[in-house]
Structure formats: C-alpha cells, structure tokens
Amino acid sequence: MKITQLRNEHQQEDGEIITDSCLLIGKKMYHIECQSTDDVTMAIRMIEYDFAIGIEHAEKQGRGYRIEFPKSCVLFLRSSGNTPDYLEADVVFPDGNTYLYSIPTIKMTDYTKDSIFEKNLLMLLPFYIMRYEKKGHDFNSNPELFQVFLNEYEEIRVNLEEELTEIGKSELYTDLTKLIIKIADYIFREEDNVRKGIGDIMGGKVLELESERLKAEGKAIGRAEGEAIGRAEGEAIGQARGEAIGQIQGEARLGSLITRLIQDQRTEEIPIVSTDATRREQLYKEYNL
Fold it and tell me: Do 83 and 38 contact (CB within 8 A), yes or no?
C-alpha cells in the first residue's frame, strides 16, 4: 500500500500551523503528534490541526464541500495517571447539533521492548529509555540493577541488528542507534557511568556501519565526478570529497540538529526529522545549520 508524506505546513489568516506528521496511506489521511509532556490544551490544538488538514483536502461536491478529518492520535513520550486514553471535546455546530471530537492517545510507557519489535514500531525505540529517566541514581548505587539495564539494551541492539542489517537497512539501523545514544546522553546527563554503558553497547556497530556507508558513498560520488574531470584523477578527488561531504553533512549536521532539539526540550521532533526531509530542512534553517 502506498504511503505518502503530506505537507505539514497549513496557512491560516492568523499565521502558519505546522503539524508533526501527516500521512496519506492508501486513500486515508493520518495525523500524528508527539508530546514530551502532558498538555491539557492538546484536544483544542488537535482540533485546530485536524480542521486545517481537512480544509486543505476538502472535496467540492456541487455547490457544497465535504470536509473529512484525518485519523489522528497523540503519542505521549511521557505520561502519568492523569493522561487520558482519549482527548475529547464537544463541538456545537450552528444547527445546534453537538458532536464529540475524540482521538486516542498512545503512551510510550504502555510499550515494552518486545511489543515494539512485534508491532514493528522501531521509531519508538529511542524513547524507550525515558521510562528509566528517574533511575540514574539507582543504577549508580546498585550494580546488579545496572547490569540488568545494560543486558536489556544489549538485547535491543541484537534484535535491532537482526531486524534491519539483514534486509539492507543498515542506514536506518545507524540512525536509530545514534538517536538512542543521543537521548540517553540527555536523559542521563548527570550520570557518566550510565551514558558510557549505553554508548559502549550501542556505539560499536554504528561506527562499523557508518564507516562502510561513508566509504560506499564516497566511491559513488567519486565515480560521478570522475566522469566529468577524468577517470583517474576524478576517482581520487571525487572519492575524497564524497567521504568528506558524506561525513560532514550526513553525520555532523543531523547530529547537531538532534543535539539542539534535545537542548531545547523538543524531543518530540526527533523521530520526525529522521524520516521527514521537508521538516528536517525547516529545522536546519531555523537553527541556521
């Protein structure tokens, strides 16, 4: 089934609305928002976003229109007992009829590592560590508990490697693993041992795959430039440039963006920039990267 990333900028008279992710899957529209904290105004925000999406894709039927809201949900990276299962609001139309606007919430804490792999929700893996953000001190004072934690992440690494590297998606494996390390560095910024433990487990294979990717990318760019400036000289110059470009743009630029998002507590944007090139370019411009 075809999946299309729809435009996430929607113009209104009082300004621009930017949604996290809007997809067309088959003939149905889906809208997903990520929240790092609970927000009691989220139902109103979602109505505003969904209405903007519906207006943009309204169908003209004679002299009238059909406006269909997307199928929406909110992913809460953090949640509490007060986080509802549904966001709801009563909407009263001019004819006096009242309709219930209701969309489901997805709570990161409801997903185990096993269920993430079973449902192929791999983009949730970088945020799995947030369930442990209050246990940094416990890990430092309890070596056995810390080892259980490290064993769990070793299992995650092995499963992720099996899922992706064997089917030719090593670049996605690299990106997800880097995100896991980045978010762990932020969550445990006061706990050096925990950061090092996660880095040691997740980082080795990343370096190996990244080296292979840059080498292949450098050779590809080298061949392209070599055709223009001469096979022998172009292969050497182009490959060197390609490796530099691939390393600087593919790693440093995205890495800098992720770091800035974490610093600004915009972690909900991280899975978006990993898959949405348009949103990634918007944030590059916003941060002057």
Answer: yes
